[in-house]
Amino acid sequence: MNNKFKIITFSLLGLSFMSCSLFQKNKSTSSQENTVEVKKESVLPTDRTDIVQPVSAVYTSQEISKGILKGDWSIESVNGNPVVGEKAPFLKFVPAEGKIYGNNGCNVINADYQYNPEDSTLTFSYLTSTMRLCYKEGLTDTQINLALDSTRYYKCELNGDDYNLTFYNEYMKPVMQLMHQNFQFLNGTWSVKEISGEKVDVPKMKLVIDVEEGKLHGNTGCNVINGSLEINMESANSISFQAISKTLMLCPDENYETPLLVALEEAMKARPLKGDKVELLDSQNKPVLLLERTSDK
After folding, report:
1. Tens of pLDDT, residues 168-220
2. pLDDT (0 to 100) of residue 70
């Protein structure tokens, strides 16, 4: 395949913003029903917050079996080697646009993509990247870009609570492995059993989490709270609770409202435990909340 390299210059607020078109492929003229075809040129995003949706796509087993590609995927390895980057490398598939957005460990990238679940073919074209200098030793940003360029096939698999995605080159050799954490285990109503290791016995304290809608609702034991659940790909497959608001009822002197709100703000990871329990952890992997599933509303 012939690769055409080009430099694209972007102007933002009077400043020069540079990007590089790393490769370009000829568009497929196939009219197969399941093939995603993109005709418009890529546009390099200047602000990642403008393009990343608040909640990672939620998969079903039927979608995985059909080979549907969507949502956020953290890049775990390239050509069998673990990725190293200043930031957590990831890709976001946006089916409505036929594009991927992401980060290669140093620079923001985007590209057009087309795939066909029936024959497991996948190609990327018009890959563009910002051009900031990267200083971390062993950075794999170039290898990630080259792996995307060589991708011709893909495979989706369910592995426990996680989904794995593998890209293959034309010789069916794996060139990239990605992972998408399935957070559906967080769906439902939860009673709060521990806050930062301290046992809690407040029957009214409940959290209701809707992963598909990206919403949080609950009761601190005194006030009603509402917020959003977000997937933070800067730290691969982690979560955060944002925009938490509460009613303003006067609470008793001794209550766990403030510790609960602080714990929700600190929560960055979630893992299921035996006995219908879930543990939320902070950035240092310290437990901040222990939740137990309940049928109470």
Report:
1. 999 999 999 998 877 878 999 999 999 999 999 999 999 999 987 889 999 99
2. 86
Contacts of 133 (CB under 8 A, 6+ apart): none
User: In this structure, are residues 116 and 35 in contact, taking their beta carbons and an 8 Å threshold?
Assistant: yes
216 with 227: CB under 8 angstroms?
yes
Query: Which tokens in the block code for residue 32?
Result: 């197969």
134 DSSP 8-state letter: -
Do β-strands 287-293 and 277-281 pair in parallel, antiparallel, or remain unpaired?
antiparallel
Residues 235, 283: contact at Cβ < 8 Å?
yes
Listing DSSP states for 159-181 in one string gives ETTEEEEEEE-TTS-EEEEEEEE
Q: Give, in order, the Cα–Cα distances in Å from 148 to each of 31, 137, 142, 295.
A: 23, 21, 10, 46
CA angle 239, 245, 247 (to 5 degrees): 145
CA–CA separation, 17 and 15 (whole Å): 6
- Local structure of 6: helix, strand or coil: strand
CB 174 within 8 A of CB 266: no
Helix (H) or strand (E) holding 238: strand 238-246
In order, the DSSP letters of 179-210 are: EEE-GGGG-EEEEEEEETTEE---TT-EEEEE
Whole-model pTM: value is: 0.62
With contact defined as beta carbons under 8 Å apart, do 208 and 216 qualify? yes
Lookup: tokens for 204: 């009214």
Q: Are 231 and 183 in contact (CB under 8 A)?
A: yes
Q: Max CA-CA distance within the chain?
A: 71
- Mean pLDDT value across residues 70-80: 90
* Distance in Å from the first CA to the final CA of the chain: 59
Count of other CB atoms within 10 angstroms of residue 273 = 12
Residues whose CB falls within 8 Å of the CB of residue 203, separated by 6 or more in sequence, listed in order: 191
